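Run log // design_07
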């Protein structure tokens, strides 16, 4: 079952001479970790804005699962978003900031929920610190916490790991993957760091100049003569295969990198 399905969707900004999105047909499966890929200006952010209802398509149809809509439109209470330069209210404390959005969404037991979210995302904040005093990385963490605070059924995150150090990025991806599995949520994530996404993504789409260049399941990358094995201890897996007389080699690049290159060169 799809959380969101787009059928021949086009979108054009006011006064633009051509469509920013052209004939987009795309399925986002429920419960998937969906990687939205493409070069700068390909239309990823615009597509996210359409999916969450911030923009209305010029033509075509967006269909939502029954629990993600009201009267055929996106039910914003079920969406968590981090899409481009959200306001961060610099004069509020971290606690005041999260309380503001928690009350906006009607979150029950808000104090407990804030502590639960910060702990679950492995974020360490001084709750009395002003948002404006946070580093760029910590502001980004706060925005992710804000996006998941009301337990949305679908998350749309545009470069959520921006400004984070390598350790913090890995912790973020792990936390988001855990959130998806525990909440049976759908994640739509845009990032240029493909090897990191590769570990978690289940499905993908590549946008190129406003069009879908390629889409599908991340597992189907190799050609028909290649056997792929997903294994945490890859070195040991390779050794076992070699001992059994099976020739194998480690991939030179991530699956998403392979897909992305095929789409961009195709």
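design_07 sequence
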């Amino acid at each position: 079952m799809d959380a969101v399905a787009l059928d021949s969707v086009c979108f054009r900004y006011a006064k633009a001479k051509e469509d920013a999105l052209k004939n987009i047909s795309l399925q986002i499966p429920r419960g998937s970790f969906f990687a939205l890929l493409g070069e700068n200006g390909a239309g990823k952010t615009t597509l996210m804005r359409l999916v969450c209802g911030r923009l209305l398509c010029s033509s075509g149809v967006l269909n939502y699962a029954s629990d993600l809509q009201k009267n055929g439109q996106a039910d914003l209470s079920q969406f968590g978003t981090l899409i481009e330069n959200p306001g961060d209210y610099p004069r509020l404390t971290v606690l005041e900031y999260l309380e503001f959005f928690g009350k906006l969404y009607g979150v029950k037991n808000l104090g407990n929920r804030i502590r639960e979210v910060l702990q679950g995302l492995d974020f360490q904040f001084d709750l009395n610190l002003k948002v404006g005093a946070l580093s760029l990385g910590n502001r980004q963490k706060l925005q992710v916490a804000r996006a998941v605070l009301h337990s949305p059924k679908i998350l749309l995150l545009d470069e959520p790991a921006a400004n984070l150090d390598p350790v913090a990025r890995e912790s973020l991806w792990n936390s988001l993957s855990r959130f998806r599995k525990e909440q049976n949520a759908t994640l739509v994530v845009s990032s240029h760091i493909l090897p990191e996404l590769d570990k978690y993504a289940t499905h993908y789409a590549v946008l190129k100049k406003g069009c879908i260049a390629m889409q599908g399941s991340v597992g189907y990358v190799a050609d028909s003569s290649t056997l792929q094995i997903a294994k945490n201890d890859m070195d040991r897996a390779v050794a076992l295969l070699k001992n059994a007389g099976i020739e194998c080699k480690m991939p030179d690049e991530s699956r998403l990198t392979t897909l992305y290159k095929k789409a961009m060169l195709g």
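The CA atoms of residues 94 and 127 lie 5 Å apart.
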